[in-house]
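Sequence, please.
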């Protein structure tokens, strides 16, 4: 299959996840084009068999370039096998309220863009303290404390389940 993976990343974890997905799919014989959401604005989606959009949740919203891409390409996205990969720290946990919030974030994204992803992949992100300024670092430590999560503000902490991501990608594409 020829697959486009278009992503938007704030601190870099979504970019890392998108790169990992691209490498995994290439290893399994697919042709993959990986692009930032801004660079993918002019992409002709009809030339792909599948499209994966990836973005991360920040303050209940996804990155503006990703929203713009999905909105501008909503009709084309409905004509190809497509999926939405949503990266968040909430996906690392089991709190029902957090998961309801993630569902609401995806629903708002769909309403705003006019594209309802047929497949949604929730992937756990990371605390990227190396990328945060003082205020964001403080806020992220507070969020971690509310979940009884022990974090070191001098070290990044990754929650992404890489093996789970492989299984999710296989399920989306119908196996290897």
């Amino acid at each position: 299959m020829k697959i486009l993976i278009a992503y938007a990343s704030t601190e870099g974890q979504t970019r890392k996840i998108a790169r990992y997905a691209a490498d995994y799919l290439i290893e399994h014989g697919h042709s993959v084009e990986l692009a930032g959401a801004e660079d993918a604005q002019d992409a002709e989606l009809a030339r792909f068999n599948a499209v994966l959009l990836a973005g991360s949740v920040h303050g209940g919203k996804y990155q503006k370039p990703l929203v713009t891409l999905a909105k501008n390409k909503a009709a084309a996205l409905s004509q190809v096998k497509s999926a939405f990969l949503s990266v968040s720290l909430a996906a690392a946990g089991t709190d029902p309220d957090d998961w309801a919030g993630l569902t609401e974030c995806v629903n708002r994204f769909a309403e705003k863009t006019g594209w309802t992803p047929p497949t949604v992949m929730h992937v756990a992100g990371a605390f990227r303290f190396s990328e945060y300024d003082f205020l964001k670092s403080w806020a992220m430590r507070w969020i971690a404390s509310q979940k009884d999560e022990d974090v070191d503000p001098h070290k990044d902490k990754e929650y992404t389940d890489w093996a789970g991501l492989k299984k999710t990608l296989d399920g989306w594409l119908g196996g290897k």
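Residues 97 and 116 are 22 Å apart (CA to CA).
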